[in-house]
Amino acid sequence: MATILLVEDDNLVRDMLTQILERAAHKVMSAIDGEQAAELLRKNIPDILITDIIMPKKGGISLISEVKNRHPNMEIIAISGGGRLNPIGYLDLSESLGASISFEKPINNNALLMAIDLLLHKHKEMV
Amino acid sequence: MTSTKPQKLWLPYLVALLGGLLTFLLAYLFWLDAQANDVVMNALEVYLPWLTLLFGATISLLLAMMTRVAQLAKQRAVTVDKINNDLKREISERIQAEETRQKLEIALLQGHKLQAMGTLASGIAHDFNNLLYAIIGYVEMARDDVEKGTLVHGNLGKVLEASHRGQELISRILSFSRRQHQHFAKMNLNDTIEAVLCLLIPTIPASVAIEFKAENTTFIIGNQNQIHQVFVNIINNAIDAMNGEGIIQIILSSITTDDPLLSQFPDTQHHRRNYCKIEIKDNGQGMDQVVLERVFEPFYTTKEVGKGTGLGLSIVHSIVKDHHGVIRVESQKGQGTTFMILLPEQ
Q1: Overall domain count for chain B
Q2: Complex ipTM, two decimals?
Q3: What are the tens digits of pLDDT across the range B327-339?
């Protein structure tokens, strides 16, 4: 079981992913954009951050670089529904900024849950 | 070109007629007056050597004049011929230039259309993928909650199947719109820059001068529309930075594999080849360090709302990358800006 911060601006996707993650016995906090996520991160340190890339106010790219600076050990999963410019480019960029893994929407949820388990396992080994 | 002056065709006839009349008058005079005849004959005898000399000199002069006239006529014919050929060549060059310009305009328009379509398609894809992801996620959960083999389980499976077909459709539209942008061919960079200037110069203020200097003719492998876009974006930005007055210099040169400049860019070290260097300098207002660091970032703009999308230079950056090139910008507030692009030479 992990504590996961989910950052996603689309209500339906956020609600659906929350349910999926909770069904897999994870504890989920959710934020609608990078700003709200940064607010939540001041009080809580989750094990894993799952963030969308294109969001209003503060996007995923700046959130990832900020989180990597403040919490270098936090595992980050970037998800994107195909960027306005070049979706793959954004996901590549997020990985080069420090995201452990990235997924293009629609995501295979089993693959996402497996990735979370793997990252948790790796994280525990490091600790 | 046709001459409007009348040619005076009667003039040689008039000269011949006058000469004939004069001769006839003299002959008639000698004929009538025998005394005058004698006087003239005596005088002729006395002055014969002088008269012969005069006659000879006159004939020589006449012949020389005729030769010169013939020479001038020939020279003129040659000049006229040359002018004629020059004119023909100029006309055909102009027609060709006009055709090239029209073709470029069409290509540019097509490029813009395709770009707009691509942007639209990827925008739709982004929202659609979100929707599909929500549908698929909820249906998967609902399906897990019902007993396998029931009608509801089967029907939810059909919803999933349809959603996956939607997903495939979106990826097909996206790959189509991307493929449209990626036709690469050998192209003459000098011609492309000149064509861009041809299109831009009529749209810029007369107080902004654009100079283009090229060391030699450069060929690259690239996409004409995309390279066009690179120059149009950078030059337009330079014009915006000028406040209506100044000079933009475009310098095209070649650099060889061992040039120390290339070692500053690790990306160029993968392909050991010659590069061409394009510098676009303006003496506009320049940028400070904060703006300079974010200049290639998507959606970043310093322009007023509605004036810039903040996408121009990020597109320029990704196009140069797609061409295995590098781009660097140097600027100082109040000193102007220089964009340097390195592209692999063909």
Answers
A1: 3
A2: 0.85
A3: 888 988 888 899 9
